[in-house]
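Quick log. Single chain, no ligands specified.
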Amino acid sequence: MYSSDIDRPTQNLSIEKKPLRKRRCFVSNQSHPTCKLVRFVVAPDNSIVPDLAERLPGRGFWLLSSRDVVNTACSKGLFTKVTGSKVTVRDNLADHVEVQLLQRCLNWLGMARRAGDAVGGFEKVVSFLEANVGSIVFCASDASDGGRRKVLSGAKEAFVVNIFSGAELGSMFGRERMVYVAVRQKLLASRIINESIRLAGFRISGTF
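-> predicted structure:
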């Protein structure tokens, strides 16, 4: 599941303490924890809509959080088959899901920043990691190899994510670009990790 762009730390972060709910992906026909899936429902106008918060009414239809899987479901007409009715699937559905997942990730990161649990910038991140073992480290996908190595050299047992651009990370701090961000392992950390893993499935081929 993890690629070079999302690295599991040597010691696991406690992403989920309660038993994981599982659902079946209707493309692969395999069961996975819901944190690795995307739920879809049929809207009142018979269109297929993603339900990333898993709160919309109606029966849910689950897919592995993967661009390839969503594209397969669309190209083969599998939404019609699994729902048993004629439904409308928007063009570029996978792109639409990716945008929503990105916004959810940035929203959680923003909440962590406002709570004082996230910092940005090379020097601040390096100092932060020295005092907070097991943090989440975000290195922009366009970060230099040398800078990334220096930051991660002090990131003990960190969960490293490299799927965001510098502009995307910067938007959280109201800046044009931010290369490094660190988040303390607290309540929001599990949300951020889970959403980042789901987003990676739309940005990295073969993540799951």
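Residues 93-114 form the longest helix (22 residues).
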